[in-house]
Amino acid sequence: MKVSRVKNMISNLENWQSYLLYKYSGKKAPDFTFKLKNNRSVTVPKRLIREFKESFFAETYTAGLPAELINIKNPVVIDIGANVGFFTLYSLTKFKNPRLISFEPIEKNYRQLIKNVPPEENKNVTLFNKAVSDSEGEIHMMLDSSADFTTSATIFNHTQEKDRVSVKSTTLPKVFQEFKLQKVDLLKLDCEGAEYCILYNTPPALFEKINCIALETHPGLEQHENNEALAAYLKKKGYLVSTGKDLLWAHKPLEQWV
Length: 258
Hints:
Largest sheet: 7 strands, mixed
CATH class of the largest domain: Alpha Beta
Strand content: 25-35%
CATH architecture of the largest domain: 3-Layer(aba) Sandwich
Shape: globular
Distance between the termini: 37 Å
Number of strands: 12
Order of helices and strands: HHEEHEHEHEEEEHEHHEHEE
Structural class: alpha/beta
């Protein structure tokens, strides 16, 4: 395990020693309950532990952003593609009194998201069973409907996912309008191909209100549907951009933060 992941594990978990015992035990239970900071906990099925570790061990979505982001009081965070809620939980434990707006379009994932982040216990979190795209109404997604949860539902039709479903959709401008947002400190996207239609159709006035963007990119068939094209686009919008394997972080210069 990398040193940075060990540090994050110790920093973010109350029971990291118990997790190591679980990890290296010969016979693993089907799930593990992680005790987080701020008296929170989450029970994670064995097959989703890798996704949990992306947020809490690798700190994937904040790793390429300025450390100053963590110190903002009352930040606004939008989580597009919340899945079962690991990044939403990470934000609740890491940021200082954040306002969370999280979107997950797949019903099975959304039901688990509500269990992991109960709305009645988290008044500063709003959860939506919706996608975010470039249109309101409904969009189609491809997924494997036989799985209990899915981490690979996509808007692309050229994948191996076999089932097509319709899901409700909204747009980023509509989210800003509905919540009367004057700023967003972090826009996180892991939305299986929808990142392109969302960001390429975001009005310039909204980019002026978004301090940081972090996303996982999913290569498409079009020339502009890749990490490099999206990075170049965000640079033109005034962001400082860094990239990793299928990852992109963008932030405005600190003096321009809203």
